[in-house]
Write a structure and sequence with these properties.
Blueprint: H1 2-25, E1 28-33, H2 39-52, E2 57-62, H3 67-80, E3 84-87, H4 95-105, E4 109-112, H5 118-121, E5 127-131, H6 134-151, E6 162-169, H7 175-190, E7 194-202, H8 207-220, E8 227-230, H9 233-245, E9 257-258, H10 264-272, E10 277-280, H11 283-298, E11 323-325, E12 329-332
Parallel strand pairs: 1-2, 1-3, 3-4, 4-5, 5-11, 6-7, 6-8, 8-9
Antiparallel strand pairs: 10-12
Helix pairs in contact: 2-11, 3-4, 6-7, 8-9
Length: about 350
């Protein structure tokens, strides 16, 4: 009888040790997405969750485009005793609050997709960022438009030699929105093309808002718009819906529209000929890099990812860097099939 009790006790101890080992090797990671119904971020989120299967205990929260809500969610993560944080900021300019919370608990913080300013990143040694260079995406948008404009003289509707455009902007406080707006036009003028801005306004990354805005512009500036720039594909697709309602994309009535993200709906629009081009913002690689980095740091390991090396803010490889930069790729009618 005593022998049986000893064996049972030994088994219980062994099981306990196994449980402790599992707990130690399965870190808890708190993840916030600025809003779940953002098309691009839904792909990033799905990739993070898939990559975490069997490796980490994730708590993934929808911040619903509400920074105070996101702050509260981070507080809840800290109460839960997470080992690391992966945060897609609602408002990148408010990152100091999140950094302060992580720093107080000495937790690694991986910020992704919505870039904070470098000065905020420098405040905490354990803060990292994963994303893509917004300047590059804007430049590629502009290059797609410039190539089309030069190849299609009929695009100059009033034959004045000037490209008249409208610009649909994402969140004006967002770094990506600012750079995509600025660098898309810089690329067009760098190609030797004169430009004139007809209208510019925010649609907050949102397809219905962009459709409404574009419809209003088509009424206010009838016949004066020659190109539509959008900071992301959802807004580009919204503009296309308004253009369709106004009779475009039938016969010879065409309006070049460009976006950013290369989402599946945008690739469908490319196939249908309603979207001139987009720029691949690689959701899969951003999601993988976010999980890899958060997981390695939360496990007490050196910062590393399977996607690319650490770099500095300028994109130069640096083993002591705090950034992982995922490159953009131009997507047009010529190569879209390889991204579907």
């Amino acid at each position: 009888m005593k022998k049986t009790k000893v064996i049972l006790l030994a088994l219980l101890i062994a099981l306990s040790l196994v449980s402790v080992a599992v707990a130690q090797t399965t870190p808890k990671i708190g993840v916030c997405i600025y809003k779940f119904d953002d098309t691009f971020m839904s792909y990033v989120r799905n990739t993070i969750q898939t990559a975490a299967t069997g490796k980490a205990d994730l708590s993934v929260q929808d911040s619903q485009y509400d920074q105070p809500r996101q702050n509260d969610q981070v507080d809840q993560f800290l109460t839960m005793g997470v080992s690391g944080l992966a945060i897609n900021m609602v408002d990148p300019s408010a990152v100091s609050v999140i950094i302060g919370k992580a720093q107080k608990k000495n937790l690694p913080l991986v910020l992704f997709n919505r870039e904070p300013v470098a000065a905020d990143m420098a405040k905490y040694a354990k803060a990292y960022y994963i994303g893509a260079k917004a300047q590059q995406s804007g430049t590629m948008e502009g290059e797609i438009v410039a190539a089309y404009w030069k190849a299609h003289p009929e695009a100059d509707l009033n034959k004045d030699g000037v490209l008249q455009y409208v610009m649909l902007i994402g969140d004006p406080s967002n770094t990506d929105a600012k750079y995509r707006t600025e660098f898309s036009i810089k690329a067009v003028t760098a190609a030797g093309i004169k430009v004139q801005k007809v209208a510019e306004d925010t649609a907050m990354w949102d397809r219905p808002k962009a459709q409404e805005k574009m419809a209003a512009w088509l009424t206010a500036y009838a016949g004066k718009i020659e190109v539509v720039f959008a900071n992301n594909d959802d807004m580009a697709l919204g503009a296309i819906e308004a253009l369709k309602a106004a009779g475009y994309f039938k016969g010879s009535k065409y309006m070049p529209v460009v976006g950013v993200d290369a989402t599946p709906p945008a690739l469908d629009a490319l196939e249908q000929g309603t979207l001139l081009g987009t720029v691949l913002n690689d959701a899969k690689r951003q999601g993988l890099a976010t999980f890899d980095l958060a997981y390695s740091l939360a496990s007490g390991k050196p910062a590393m990812t399977s996607v690319g090396p650490l770099a500095n803010a300028d994109g130069v490889a640096d083993p002591n860097g705090k950034y992982i930069w995922v490159p953009y790729v131009k997507v047009t009618k010529d190569n879209y099939k390889s991204f579907k």
